[in-house]
Every structure is written in C-alpha cells, then in structure tokens.
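Ticket #4471: complex job returned nothing on first submit. Input attached below:
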Amino acid sequence: MATIAAVIASTHHPFYYRASTSTGADRPPFADEWVAKILSFRETLTRANPDVLVLVGSDHFHQLWLDNMPQFLVGKAPFYDANWYNEEREFGLPRMFFTGQEDLSAHILRGGLDAGFDLAFSNELRIDHSVTCPIITLRPQADLPIVPIYTNIFAPPLPQPKRFVQLGQAVRDLVESWPGDLRVAIIGTGHLSLELGGPRQFGPHGPDPEFDRKAVEWIASGDIEKALGEVSLESLWEPGNATHGFMDFLLMMGVAGAGVKADYADTLDLFHTMEAYFTWYPQAASGIDASGGRSR
Amino acid sequence: MSKYLLDKFLYTIDRDPELVERYRSDPRGTVEWWEAERANAILNVHGGESSSWLKFDDVERQALVTHDYVKLFELGVHPFLSLTLFIAMFERDYAEPLAFQRKFGADLSHFNLPYPDITT
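Support reply: We reran it on our side without changes. The output follows.
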C-alpha cells in the first residue's frame, strides 16, 4: 500500500520564480529572505523522500472555461505540459513538462466517484501556476510523476467550504488505499487574504492581515471546526475578492486531519499578500521518521 | 446584460498575443470585429455549430471600446480576467514596477463591499 510521505499546504505566488532568479538591480529587496524561507520549506519535502506528487490547485481560466466548468477535476494523463503564454508574459514563468502517475489518477477517480464525489476528469490537461509554483518552490528538478487535482475556487457558483474539507479527507483515504507501494506527497496550494482586480490589490501587505493571522492559526493547529465555523462562501469576499482560494487550504487541512498540528509552519509578510508554508508528516505520529525509516 | 460575454471577450483576447496588441491599439475595431465574428463561437466547437444569441448591450460595448476597466468592474466582469489583460496592455507604459497595478486599484477605490456580483 502507498505511504503518505508528507502533506504540504502553501500559498502559490507566481512572482517567486522571477524574484528568486533575478540579479543586480532587478532583484527585489525581499528576494533573499524569500529564497531562504523557500529553501527551508523545500527541505521539508526533500526529507520526506517522495516518489509521487499529488498536486491540488486551481486553473485560472486557462484550460477550464465558463462554457464547461467543473467543480473538482482530476488529471488522468501520461504527461502534462505546463504554464501558459499569459503566465510567461506576466510572471516570466518557464514552460514545463511532467510525467503523470496515471494509475494513481485512475484510483482516485474510481474511488472518489464511488465515495460520492462526482469528479470530472481530463485526459489532456495543460496545467498552470497553481500547480507549477509548488514544484518550482519545493521540487525544482521536476523529476517526479504527478497527479493534478483542480478545484473551482475561482468562478462562482463554488462548492461549499466543507466540501473542500470532505474531498481532502477522501483524497487522504484514497491515496492510503492505493496498492502502489510508493511514497506519495500530497501538496496543495491556495491563498490567504488576496485581492485581484479590485481596489485593495497590491497594497503593502495582504488586504486583511487579521484574517491571515487567524487563518495561519487554524491551519497550523489543524482546527477545521473553527475554520469552518468562521468562513462561508459569503464571508470569504470580505478579506479580499480572491480569498476563496483559502478553500484549497481547507482541503489540505482535510488531508492532514482534524486537530493535527503542522510539523512545520512558516510565513512571510510580503506586499500584496502573505505567504504561508505548512508541512505535516502523517507517519511521525506512528513512530516512523519522515524519510520512511523507523525512528529511534 | 451578459457578464459571461464580457468575460469571454477578455478571456479570448488575453490568451492570444496578436489580439492583445490589436485590442490595445484599435479597441473599437477589435470589439466590433470580435462581436461580429467571435462572440458566438463556442470554444472547442466547429465553426458551423456556433451559438446564435450572444451580443453586447450598448453599455457593455462602450466599456470595452473605451478600455474602461472601472466600468467593467461595475458590470461584474471577473476581476482576474480584467486585471490580467489590462496589465498585458498597459503595464509597459509605466516606469515603476507595479505602478499600473496600483493605479488600477486606486481607480476602483470608490467601490465598497459588497463588490458587484461576478457570478455568471
């Protein structure tokens, strides 16, 4: 049976690639601190020694469009091309290419459908920065096969927040029941408070630092009950008009489990948005160290 | 009123480098061409099976023709689409990094919560 090597939740910031690779006068003043935090965060995946990555993100009107919009979609393809012209244009993101772990995609689709999630699927999916950003930050060699899972946090009407938690719990169970004898890291990216295309965008901090403080506490402590008690589809407009991306953090809290504290938590207060990085090691509680060996 | 069609315009222009430049330099001509030739095309569907009913109203068409992203926000377009396309067209005209993005936000500063509904 598969082993969950790590559960990771993160913001996805498309500016990281350019900030971290720029030099001289082009290098922003916050780049060095940001890179240091990312290198530390990256180590939490490296030490988990994964074989496969399940990646939860959200298409930003690239391949998925309003004439045919799925709420939850699992990629099931042997390969994935990645990043789009407008991401290259605005963020300087590189074109990327990945191998798919197609049998795990099939297992998640079959099991998810049987568990009551009417998952859409795609046999030819070009993925975007919600999935490639965590690969750039956490596994830049991009050498592991992937299973992409897209959620709709973007084009209302959206699923309820609790549905994201439930799907996360199901994905956890499905990966654990996969017969493949491999180490799987489940990585999902979302947002804390965020405004895009509205009056509060690109301020000195995220649009709602108080929401960010509470959200980081909910995630780090695994407090699903409190998070679901305080957010709704309606309330998430208030911290910023793109804050529904927090629901992908809720999904990852579902993967990690109710009440399970993150083994690693870090934040970085940037202009425009707060970055946040969390890692859980499900095996640690059962006496197995992060790399798969038995701890002393 | 068709928020969907406004979003479709922004989406299909934004993903095509030639159309981004054409809309920047000739907004009226681009909007008129697009409404006549592209508005009813179902993406990923053969051209002989287009829709027959999609068109802008006068207010929507005028907002697009005048590059009026404030009016588009008021009309409930998806803000990610408008931000992304207008950055592509006008960020280049500002010397300071993020200066256009900040102007875009400041131009919307009279909007309070709740913002116009973007549900399509």
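Chain A touches chain B at residues 60-62, 65-68, 84-86, 89-90, 154-157, 195-203, 237-238, 241-242 (CB under 8 Å). Closing as resolved unless it happens again.
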